Amino acid sequence: MEAIDQIFVNAKSFIVSTLESLGLPDWLTLLIGMVLPATLVVIVFPATFAFLTWLERKILGRIQNRYGPNRTGPWGILQPVADGLKMLIKEDIVPRAADKLLHGLAPILVVVPAVVVFAFLPFGRNMVPADTDVALLFFFAVSSISTLALFMAGWGSRNKYSRLGAMRSIAQMISYELPLLLAAVPVVMIVGSLRLTEVVSAQATEGFFGSFTNWFVFTPWGFVGFLAFFVAGMAETNRSPFDLAEGESEIIAGFHTEYSGFKFALFFLAEYLSAIAMSGLAAVLFLGGWNGPEVLPSWLWFFGKIMVLLTIMIWIRGTFPRLRVDQLMGFSWKFLLPLSLVNIFATGVWFWTRASIPGFAGKAAAFGIAAVVLLVTYVFLARINAGPAVQKRTYRYADL
Amino acid sequence: MSDPKHDAEHDAKEKAPFAGTGLIKGMAVTAKNFVGSYFDKKRLTTVQYPEERETLKENFRNVPFLIFDQDPEAGLRCVACKICEIECPPQCIYIELELDEKGQSLKRPKVFDVDFTVCMNCGICAETCPFEAIKMDSEFELSTTDRFLSQLADKHKLSKSNEYYHQIKPTEAAAVDAKLAAKKKPPPPKAAAPAATASAPAPAPASASASAPEEKK
Question: If contacts are CB pairs under 8 Å, which of residues 53-92 in chain A contact chain B?
Fold first, then answer.
């Protein structure tokens, strides 16, 4: 298990040491050591994206009692290949009135942050491309660049639907950035570090059962934080039911109305990559990262958690209709934001109770107090956010 | 809407205690559909077309075809009267009468073309044909790689046997056969007493054959 767990780490150190023994200059081996994990990220996650498009269509199909793609290969598994080929050979159309520079730059700029954020995620034990002490901050900072790229795409296209989609995406991103960050704050408070590897190791304890009982999602504040983070993350990555920026039934395709061929594929790729990254961050912050019973290697645990979260995202997409703009804003500002603020307070109370009362009693008291505070807040927020009670509709003629 | 059972249900829903239960219920519905589609074959109503086919309904009609009895050339029921050519709304039928050396009609078509790209599958040709010679086919896989001549069906392509007609539309074909048999029977008694009723039957066929195309104009 140890060998499989560390297979990638060992492979990398083997390659680097071999190159060193061959007499390459130091800076070159250092560079290769940096490029290797980056290459792996650039290969693995687009591959996951390809698999995910197939999985999504398959699950959505089954939810709607259809087969989903089943023509290309067994169970239609080669559908992403066919789609990719189609995208590559399609004509790249740039509108005559478009701002050529912005229109061309936007698809690139939307993919770059979506890929860069993977540098900060710990994929397994000792497996993190860039182990910085501000990883969490960096993650949010880099991923918010994509908002700019979406607006560039919408503005540069010179199309009213594109612009509407871009404006919606700006409003949405700004609104959901806050609850997203505030939902992650309790974790930082408890761990005392922005380094994601430390967040992961804070959720690990010894023993078979200990390897998952310490996940933050099993604390009251962690549970609420996870839900708020997951929902806000879904909104942040434009996933349905928060896909207002695309809104294909309302504004054609939103910001990527005027994109075709490979540029469109890049937007598609960026959306899924950021969904994968957001699931990965949620797994790191609340689901224990790569921690898990040692029946599977750590990196497989991490990928398994990501896939579960992505499947839930697809499941949610298959269930709920798209929100209205006012509902979207209201949900963020009037529900998620106060909830995550109270969550920070509850985390403080939880931590203080545990610190001041020793033993099991302190743990139980902390759990109880935090749970009650959060439950009351949840019910209160739900009550004040609920619209006027639905009146029984009476029909003058239809009932006859 | 005013029945008491529904009202009770409505009230119960309004008192739903905990926010978010509706979301869970919705997720449960989709999960049930997802899992159910793997176990309950009835849920998947999609017909996997080229491999699986549903049997066509008898009333299904597409492009027309010509019926022949026994011999594909001589047995063709069509007499090239051109009623269908005149009646066809999109004018997709083109008929030329076949003549012998003396210029006498042989009562069969030399050319009978139907342009399937123009045909709108209305079935008026089959309705107006007094000889039950043209009927609507249920062949629908007509796509070809050639846009032009492959869709122009000539006499040979259009000719299909009466057995084929029985095969695709049994009820209708049986009715047509009975009608034709009934038409054939009268001549023997007519031939037996031609002189007695010479004046009576004579105008009837004449007016029938003359009025049929005229009326429809």
Answer: 59, 62-67, 70
List own/partner pairs for A318-321 with CB under 8 A and 24 or more apart: A318/A59, A318/A60, A318/A63, A318/A64, A318/B30, A318/B34, A319/A63, A319/B26, A319/B27, A319/B29, A319/B30, A320/A240, A320/A241, A320/B23, A320/B26, A321/A241
The CA distance from A88 to B41, in Å, is 37
Q: Quick check: A267 and A107 in contact, CB under 8 A?
A: yes
From chain B, pick out residues whose CB is under 8 angstroms from the CB of A70: 48
Phi-psi region of A127 (alpha: psi -120 to 50; beta: other; left: phi over 0): beta
Interface predicted TM-score (ipTM): 0.76
In this prediction the pTM is: 0.78
- Per-residue pLDDT tens listing for chain B (217 residues): 444 445 445 544 555 567 788 888 889 999 988 888 888 888 888 888 888 888 888 889 989 999 988 888 888 888 888 899 999 999 999 999 888 888 888 888 888 999 988 999 998 998 998 888 899 988 888 888 888 888 888 888 888 888 888 888 888 888 888 888 888 776 555 544 444 444 444 444 444 444 444 444 3
* Domain boundaries, position B34: 24-54
Residue B29 belongs to some domain of the structure: yes
Q: In chain B, which residues have their Cβ closer than 8 Å to the Cβ of A320?
A: 23, 26
A63 and B33: CB-CB below 8 Å? yes
Domain of A348 in residue numbering reads as 45-384
Who among B19, B34, B36 is closest to A382 (CB)?
Answer: B19
Query: Inter-chain contact A379–B30, Cβ cutoff 8 Å?
Result: no
Q: Within a domain: residue A74?
A: yes
When CB atoms are compared, the residue of A65, A319, A393 closest to B27 is A319
B73 plus B130 within the same structural domain: yes
